[in-house]
Amino acid sequence: MERMMGLLLAAAFSAALFTRTAGASTVVTAIYAFGDSSTDVGNNNFLPGNQAKANFPPNGIDFPRSRPTGRFTNGYNWVDFVAKKLKFKKSPPAYLSVSNDAQAYRSVNFASGGSGIFDAANFTISLNQQIKYFKGITHRLRTRIGGGAADRFLSKSLFLVSTGGNDIVGYYANFGLKNETQNEAFIGQLTGQFRNQLETLYDLGARKFAVLGTTVIGCIPSLRLRFGGGKCVEEINNLSRQFNKATQIVLRDLASTLKGFSYSFINTYDFISLVFSKPLNYGFTDIVSACCGSGRLNAESECRSNSTYCSSRSKYFYWDLNHPSQAGYKLIALAAYRGRRYASPVTIKQLVGL
Ligand SMILES: *[C@@H]1O[C@H](CO)[C@@H](O)[C@H](O)[C@H]1NC(C)=O
Ligand SMILES: *[C@@H]1O[C@H](CO)[C@@H](O)[C@H](O)[C@H]1NC(C)=O
Ligand SMILES: *[C@@H]1O[C@H](CO)[C@@H](O)[C@H](O)[C@H]1NC(C)=O
Ligand SMILES: *[C@@H]1O[C@H](CO)[C@@H](O)[C@H](O)[C@H]1NC(C)=O
């Protein structure tokens, strides 16, 4: 149903299919992106209901022609900047916006705002469902160009994944403070499921993974307000650190057991902590409140069509109560692409052989 709707709408607007700049330096055959609102470029526009949507102004106000695309920010997000660094002419389009399945295999973004590793929220496209959509694409690719060629194509493709934040916030918000034993059990289940999902992608042909760790999510404006009395929520930040630690162990283990599996883990937690410790060095005058919203920290309501928003948007780390601004995403993308201290064991640039 959702897919049908996506196809119909996409056919109506059509034409905007991505193309890639040809050239000797383009070693990445395709980019496939998975994850949550940090990565969504418009899939949620095609879902029923009003939850987890950003396809109205002032979202996108700094996008070309101030277009609200469904990205949860004022302009581009991290995937857009990574695609640009890799010399892709356009960012991989939202899966539900692509009118012809055969086009999707050339690069596509499955991410959906509100989704997580677990299938908790039914108003989004879960990571499991995103992977099922990708599976369909690989089947068509194999039919079209043959198994061997498909394997070679996919082995040179880049898989971007940014997830886990919604699972952590959901756990904390729904169950309150737990003891360390329970936290560890939760992180173990979460990263166990994540491991299965990464293995599934590997089985489908994925080889090069760039995984964005969860950031200092306890400091996002909505959680500061809801749980921290205005301060960062240390329990949530601790869970985020635990998730990152366990995820790195999973990735290391997959790389040592699965032939050809390689990865870049981007420690956005450490990187953003650094940015927050010296915000002015990175051009930010406000790292606490949202640019768009209302009330305390501009985080008492979501960013709506009638919300007020700041004029110096590049000086705010947060665009709305839950999401970074374009300026924030750009920094994250640069750290991922070539920030050797924060991307390990290699940067995305190194991962793709540039
Ligand atoms: C989503 O879950 C809620 C609560 O569990 C349920 O009431 C609702 O019908 C579900 N919606 C869909 C589309 O499955
Ligand atoms: C943690 O909480 C669980 C469930 O309430 C309990 O069974 C367990 O003994 C607690 N562990 C510690 C170390 O307090
Ligand atoms: C967070 O983790 C640190 C150690 O990593 C611990 O000392 C501290 O008590 C934790 N804080 C909370 C609020 O859980
Ligand atoms: C903005 O619109 C929402 C409904 O979408 C409404 O609840 C709110 O009161 C409006 N705010 C202002 C400042 O008009």
TrEMBL record:
Signal peptide annotation: 1-23
Listed GO MF terms: hydrolase activity, acting on ester bonds
Keywords (A to Z) from UniProt: Hydrolase, Lipid degradation, Lipid metabolism, Signal
Record carries keyword Aminoacyl-tRNA synthetase: no
InterPro entries: GDSL, GDSL_Est/Lipase, SGNH_hydro_sf, SGNH_plant_lipase-like
Family affiliation: Belongs to the 'GDSL' lipolytic enzyme family.
A Gene Ontology biological process term: lipid catabolic process
Keyword tRNA processing: no
Protein name stated in the entry: Uncharacterized protein
